[in-house]
Amino acid sequence: MLAIQVASPNQHIRPLTSRINESGHLTIGGCDVVELAQRFGTPLYILDEHTLRTACRQYTGALSRHYPGPSLALYASKALSLLAVSAVVAQEGMGIDVVSAGELLTALQAGVDARTVYLHGNNKSAFEIGLALDAGATVVADNWLDLETLADLAQDRPEPPRVMVRMTPGIECHTHEYIRTGHLDSKFGFDPNELPQVLAFLARTPTLHATGLHAHIGSQVFDLQAHIDTARVLVEWFNKALTLGLNFSELNIGGGLGICYTPTDDPPSIEQWVATVSRAIIDACQHYNVPLPRLLCEPGRSLIGPAGVTLYTVGSTKTVPDIRTYISVDGGMSDNPRPITYKAQYTAAVANKMNDSRRSVVTIAGKHCESGDVLLRDVELPPLAGGDVLAVFSTGAYNFSMASNYNRLTRPAIVLVSDGEASIVLKRESLDDLLRLDRLPERLQP
Ligand code: LLP
């Protein structure tokens, strides 16, 4: 039988269903995106359901192919927490990693089984931990305060709450320093020198059901070696925990697999990442002669990033002679703060001129009152005119989830496209929404 190679979404800049139709328009999920811009307005986030489901299936499929023990892939919902996305990933057999009451409620209200939900965070409130325990989710303890709160809240419960321990593995990886988390100087997780005490605490606290260890080393990582090293460190501590009599059964290797934002990005495929991590865990377990744990991973960006595209309408133009031409669009750093935060680069196309082969170099600026509000610097695009629809690719992860109302702009709608149908999964904010929580004290009223 011929093995069919399905593209790994994280190795593609455009969603897998991207095509060009007879009008020379970009289509995604069978929908003409120029029509979507007209129908729903811009800026608009589009999510391609097929690309998301393909990525989910590649994680779950690769785990079952490469890891002989039990496994569960979790979606790191910080990348984009929405009812619809939670429902899709749960349908694909995945669990969800949440980091706040808001993300937790989103997962639960989408119908995700709480036994597959894991609560993270380096400063969880007792309220958030309580909500997670009431729902039956697992809490990943990041620090002593978490453990104390958990021990407190566990007291009157019929069943010991499930707890994992997050550790800082001391692994450096090559990514932007703001999104690196596994090196020792990190605010997340227990430092290795604290772990003996943590394990001893868990061993003498039977009201908590400690299930295993977690580590996450960073995001937008292309280097497989960093995850191999992390797997080894996790198994080393897993072995120590078993030696202390703890009944550990799970290891979570975190997320972090990078995606293509530009043609020079060359991340490993989901299959390669899972195969490599699985091999590293299996080898380390053989080395320490410990049984294979249930293997968890929690990708965010590589699941939802490539599924997302942002549409803008082109507006004003300014040419600075001999320097550059600025083309402004109707969104910017409020819907995509990644360029200004991380100098992140993106790739764009003109959705209504896909067959236009002319190129000029332009800089795409946002509409915010901030000089750094530039979405793409010096990119080659067909000549742009007011009203053109610009599509910026790979914006599914950490775009809407980090969006703001800077300059009191309303945040865009999100539509999920599939088989020629577009469904609103998040309504566009209205100006009324912006003012909904404002109050004018009586003494200031006109
Ligand atoms: N697990 C934990 C504990 C995490 O902190 C993260 C990401 C993930 C999983 C998912 O990582 P991913 O597979 O998405 O790389 N705002 C930044 C990214 C911050 C990532 C934070 N943690 C950005 O826009 O690049």
Question: Can you put this structure into words, describing what you see?
Answer:
Strands 4, 13, 14, 15, 16, 17, 18, 19 and 20 form a nine-stranded mixed beta sheet that branches. An eight-stranded parallel β-barrel has the order 5-6-7-8-9-10-11-12, surrounded by six helices. A three-stranded antiparallel beta sheet has the order 1-2-3. α5 crosses α6 (144-154) and α8 runs parallel beside α9. It is an alpha/beta fold and 446 residues long. The chain is globular and about 70 Å long. Helix content is 28%, strand content 22%. The chain has two domains: 9-48 and 308-435, Beta Barrel (Lyase, Ornithine Decarboxylase, Chain A, domain 1), CATH 2.40.37.10; 49-304, Alanine racemase (TIM Barrel), CATH 3.20.20.10. The protein has helices at 33-40, 49-66, 83-91, 101-109, 126-135, 144-154, 195-203, 224-243, 270-288, 301-304, 338-342, 431-435; strands spanning 19-20, 26-28, 31-32, 44-48, 71-76, 95-98, 117-119, 138-141, 162-166, 209-214, 250-252, 294-297, 308-320, 324-329, 348-350, 360-365, 374-381, 389-393, 413-418, 421-426. β11, α9 (270-288) and β12 form a beta-alpha-beta unit. It has twelve helices and 20 strands. The protein binds ligand LLP.
